Amino acid sequence: MSVQTVKNRFLFITLSVLVFLTSSCALTPPVQEMSNARQTISAAHEVKAEVYAPGYIMEAERFMKQASEAMEQGDYLTARDYAVEAQQYAIKARQRAVSKQNN
């Protein structure tokens, strides 16, 4: 077996494993990300984010709705992205609400 053949086989196996690992992420529902986003949105509501940071909390809820819809359609990568965005907006909403209440 030539060196080039060994290199080609190694490259093929490496790429195959990479494709498998990448695609397996798309097959796994983003349960943890969805849960994190819901909990963070809930925490934002506890400090009245809808009063003190309505824009941020509305965006968090909008992204959460989109995440849920993507989950229902089986589009787990998109659902994960939306859930992460929802959590980020909820964090901002909570921070803004706490900050405004302390001033």
Structure description:
- The protein is an all-alpha fold.
- The chain has one domain (29-102).
- The chain has five helices and no strands.
- The protein has helices at residues 3-27, 31-46, 49-52, 54-72, 76-102.
- Helix 2 packs antiparallel against helix 4 (54-72), helix 2 packs parallel to helix 5 and helix 4 packs antiparallel against helix 5.
- It is elongated and about 75 Å long.
- The mean pLDDT is 88.
Name its key features:
single chain, 103 residues, mainly alpha, 5 helices, 0% strand
Count of runs of 4 or more consecutive helical residues: 5
Number-wise, the strands total 0
- Which structural category do the helix and sheet elements fall into? mainly alpha
SSE string, helix = H, strand = E?
A: HHHHH
Summarize the structure.
The chain is mainly α. The chain is built from five helices and no strands. The radius of gyration is 21 Å and the shape is elongated.
